Amino acid sequence: MEYKKAEEILPKELLKEIQNYIQGATLYIPKETHHEWGEKSGIKDKLHKRNQLIKEKFQQGNSIQSLANDFYLSEETIKKIVYKK
C-alpha cells in the first residue's frame, strides 16, 4: 500500500468535505474491485485442479502415503484433501 498526500491528489473542495469528517489521520480508500487470494496469479485454480487430481487418484485406489510422495505433501495434508466434503 502506498501513501499519498491528499492535498496533492484531491480537489480542494473534496478535501475540505473530507476534513469535515476526519482530520490529521490516515484514511484507507479501498479499490473498487477486490481479488480473492490467488485469483490474480492463478494459483487458486492450480491448487483446485491439483486437489481434484489427488481426490481422483485416491478414489482409484492410490494410498495416502503414495499420494503424499507423488505430490510432495504430508500425509495429513493429503487426508485433508481427500476427506474434505
From TrEMBL:
InterPro entries: c-mor_Regulatory_Protein (IPR052411), Homeodomain-like_sf (IPR009057), YraL-like (IPR049739). SUPFAM superfamilies: Homeodomain-like. The lineage of its organism: Bacteria, Bacillati, Bacillota, Bacilli, Lactobacillales. This is Mor transcription activator family protein.
